[in-house]
Amino acid sequence: MNIQMKITSSTDLFIEDLLNATYASTADARQKTVFKEALRGLVRLSKVEQMHEMRVSLEKLIGDPSLIAMCQRTKSRQRNHATSGRWPQQMEFNQFD
């Protein structure tokens, strides 16, 4: 049974291309799946390492960890405020005082 998963991101597309270039038709479905999941794990690990490096750089730049937490809270509030009440606040036209 051959089940194709929908490719949703450029990373998945790249992994699929790398898989096809590496194994072509020599590997069975199990080997391809193991290789694909190993590559996905490496991508996730790379993203975590990148985020950690960014946090460390930010701490060096700002210095005080409490300032970093304050910046994160402010950004979160801005996101929540931007998405929470946008539509009900539309102007109503054609109304006169």
List the helices and strands and how they pair.
Layout: H1 10-23, H2 29-62, H3 65-84
Query: How would you characterize the largest beta sheet?
Result: none
The number of distinct β-strands equals 0
Q: Helicity range of the residues? A: over 70%
Instruction: Give the domain tally.
Output: 1
Helical region count?
3
Q: What distance lies between the first and last C-alpha atoms, to the nearest angstrom?
A: 69 Å
Question: Strand portion, in percent?
Answer: under 5%
Low-confidence stretches: none
- Give the H and E element order: HHH
Radius of gyration: 23 Å
Tell me, what's the shape? elongated
- Mean pLDDT over all positions: 77
Class per helix and strand makeup: mainly alpha
List the keywords.
mainly alpha; 97 residues; 3 helices; 0% strand
Describe this protein's structure.
The chain is an all-alpha fold and 97 residues long. It has one domain (10-84). The protein is built from three helices and no strands. It has helices at residues 10-23, 29-62, 65-84. Helix 1 (10-23) packs across helix 2. The longest helix has 34 residues, at 29-62. It is elongated, with a radius of gyration of 23 Å.
